[in-house]
Amino acid sequence: MSRGTHRLRYLRIAVALLVLGGFSAAFSDFRHLLPAGLGPWLASTQLIPSFVALATGSLFALGGVLVILLTLLAGRVYCSALCPLGILQDVISRLADLVRRKPHRLPPAKPLTWLRQLFLWGTVAGVLAGWSGLTLALLDPYSNFGRIAATLFRPVLTLGNNALVDLSAGLGLPGPNRLDLAATGAGLLVLLPAAVLVLLTVMTVLRGRLFCNTICPVGTLLGFIANRAVFRLRLDQSSCTKCTECLRHCKAQCIDLRAGTIDASRCVACYDCISACDRGGINYALNWKPAPAWSTPATEVVGNPLHPLRRTFLASAAGAVASVTLVGKIARAAEVKTEIIPTLVLSGENSPAVAPPGAVSVSRFIDRCTSCQLCVTACPTQVLQPALLEYGLAGLLKPRLDYNASFCNFDCVRCAEVCPTGALDRLRPEEKHGAQIGIADFYRDRCVVVTNGTDCAACSEHCPTKAVATEPYGENLRLPVLNQDLCIGCGACEFACPVKPQKAIIVTGRRVHARAKQLVEKKAVAPKRTDDFPF
Fold first, then answer.
1. Which terminus of the chain is more exposed, N or C, with fewer CB under 10 A?
2. Which phi and psi (to 5°) does residue 232 adopt?
3. SS percent in the chain: helix, strand, coil, step 5
4. Where in 274-361 does DSSP place strands (E)?
5. Full DSSP string of 165-199
6. Continuous segment of H or E residues that includes residue 66
7. pLDDT of amino acid 300
């Protein structure tokens, strides 16, 4: 075994730690200390966000092309060193070994080709059927990691911050500011990322990279390419003593010592087996020929109609057709249910939810967003929150503006700056000032001026475009009056309104964003969270 080959593992570990640290910091940046460009730059190295951005024409996305070329050259290096979800599995596996106090020996396993192809073709079918936003959101490894970090890791860090605040106050020392935990996500929104993390942990502890080689469509796609990679790992029969030490370190269960083969489609290029072998039984070698099928008897030939490769292709094609048909039926059923049950909008076409500035329209936004929640982390006012069914089923976990939590800052365009897929068009602040993402409605009978005879005008005071003014009412009171032509839907009025449980002024999202007709240069004071009147 050459010294250079042995160093591949250490190089892979170093790169993986940097990548995992960078993504974890970007998605858990609860104090907004990192530059806005870090998150999208890291995301540009990920296959699905890069290809979505390339397909939409919103961004020049070269990362996905480079990943394909890297895989064609050296195998699934992306899965071991660049994919944050894959690296997280390695961390989980390492922690499990520390608990067990020894590496978990995984026996070689046959590839679940039919299951891998089912998830891959199901993903393709979902995209072709117009459900790309939901399909990619559920299966994209990058987006799944983003939700785990943003929804689970960030609140833990926020709790740690607040504990440090209490400790500093108790000791009479200066400390950080307390942060609002309510804006970091809770309840049902935590269930899906938590379920993915639990599933990932169980599969990793029991079967190593089983998730990457069964469920992940990116892993399956790259595995198909890696099977034809220029450089691949191979067993040297003259040096291999069948000591099984490589099996103890293979997280993909892709080494078959009996047949003397390594399944390149499942090998994640971690190079642990190379370091484990003291006799040089595993080499990283140039090989232009496609890798052989897993343990294929010599008597089988490709011309045989029962050959595994032919069976896999036929099963995959049938799965693709069935998936497209199924997804189409689901979409049509969703349209019928939308008419019958208007409160549960499955298509998002009639959704009252407010999509972020730059979304252009709700349907466009749902199709392009993979729900990675990078914008949720980056939002300085934390008005962006993951949606449950506010957009409908198609918009599950897509970011929406929650005016119960906060409001959209008049000058802020950070969400569009960090979006890696082009789901949000990048707006200049002056363009954002006139972007009408929603329309406010004033409910006179709920206003405290009418119900309690109490002067308020909180909504008028905090409206940045002066869409809300006041007019004389009763004795020395002023009642809000709304000009919807000036409203941009920022939610400052709704957030400032003290009426509970239903606000007296509520913003409804526009299905297609528009431009406000007129703007006033003078901007209002930003509202603050309070249990009393917000002024």
1. C
2. -140, 155
3. 45, 10, 45
4. 282-286
5. HHHHHHHT---PPP--GGGG--THHHHHHHHHHHH
6. helix 63-74
7. 36
What's the pLDDT score for residue 258?
Answer: 85
pLDDT per residue over 169-187, tens digit each?
Answer: 888 887 777 777 654 445 6
Query: Taking residues 335-354, what's their average pLDDT?
Result: 49
Report the distance separating Cα 144 and Cα 48, nearest Å.
12
Confidence of residue 101 (pLDDT cuts 50, 70, 90): confident
Which amino acid makes up residue 405? A
DSSP string, 17-63: HHHHHHHHHHHS-TT--S-TTHHHHHHTTSHHHHHHHHHHTSS---H
What does the alpha-carbon distance between residue 360 and residue 68 come to, in Å, rounded to a whole number? 31
- In order, the DSSP letters of 375-391 are HHHH-TT--EEE-SSSS
Phi first, then psi: give them for residue 428, nearest 5 degrees.
-75, 155
Separation CA 395–CA 399 (nearest Å): 9
**CB-based contacts of 49, cutoff 8 Å, min separation 6:** 43, 61, 63, 140, 142, 143, 370, 372, 420, 421
H or E element in which residue 205 lies: helix 188-207
Q: What is the DSSP code (8-state) at residue 78?
A: I
Assess contact for 310 and 289: CB atoms under 8 A: no
- In the structure, what pLDDT confidence band is assigned to residue 504 with cuts at 50, 70 and 90? very high
Strands 231-235 and 282-286, by their bridges, are: antiparallel
Helix 47-56 with 63-74: angle, nearest 10 deg: 130
- Residue 425, Cβ neighbours under 10 Å: how many? 16
The per-residue pLDDT for range 513-526, each reduced to its tens digit, is 999 986 545 455 56
CB atoms within 10 A of CB 531: 7
CB distance 92 to 208 below 8 Å: no
Quick one: average pLDDT of 233-256?
A: 86
Residue type, 443: Y
Domains along the sequence of the chain with CATH: 3-229 (no CATH), 434-535 (3.30.70.20)
